[in-house]
Design goal:
By secondary structure, the protein is mainly α. Helices cover 72% and strands 0% of the residues. It is built from seven helices and no strands. The longest helix has 53 residues.
Length: 186
């Protein structure tokens, strides 16, 4: 009797580990990890939506990196400018580098949000398709006596479906401006 032993090389072990998919997260686990990430981001802040924040955004859009680079050069050649700014050329270069790296993170986060939105849309689409199919099947089955227990559910779905249409119709009517024509005096 011979026994055969499998010897796994380090490369095979590494590729086997790489093939294992990462564990899937529940929405609650994902939120927990996001909150932990927020705590690890230096100077993480949520700014309010107001004029001051809008001003920051306008300024950031109008000042190009080339402009900032020339300003850094001005700080480097003049001690008076450096004193007025309160930063060194090295500090400004570090801020520029860090801002660029965090911009890459911001782009990835936007991509993540778009992916999450698409994932949720696909989930909702599947749910809606199943719900409509359940409604249609139940509506047909309720016509048979042995499925009469479905009647309250079919009625509830029908009522909810109609109320959804009614709300939409009312809001559309409310949005249309009324045209008032003045009466002519005779």
């Amino acid at each position: 009797m011979t026994t055969k032993t499998n010897v796994v090389s380090p490369n095979q072990a590494a590729s086997a580990v790489a093939l294992d998919p990462p564990p899937l997260l529940s929405p609650e686990q994902f939120i927990e990890q996001l909150r932990m990430l927020q705590q690890q981001i230096p100077n993480f802040v949520q700014l309010p939506k107001n004029r001051e924040t809008d001003g920051f955004r306008r300024l950031a859009r109008t000042i190009t990196l080339e402009f900032a680079h020339e300003a850094t050069n001005a700080v480097g050649v003049s001690s008076v400018v450096e004193a007025a700014v309160g930063n060194t050329p090295e500090g400004m270069h570090q801020a520029e580098d860090l801002a660029g790296r965090w911009a890459a993170v911001e782009n990835e986060a936007r991509s993540l949000v778009r992916g999450l939105s698409s994932t949720n849309l696909v989930l909702r689409q599947g749910l809606c398709k199943d719900a409509v199919q359940a409604y249609n099947v139940s509506r047909e089955l309720v016509k048979q006596k042995e499925h009469s227990h479905l009647l309250p559910h079919v009625e509830a779905m029908r009522r909810l479906k109609k109320s959804r249409r009614r709300v939409k119709a009312v809001t559309e009517v409310a949005r249309k401006p009324e045209v008032v024509t003045p009466k002519s005096e005779q």
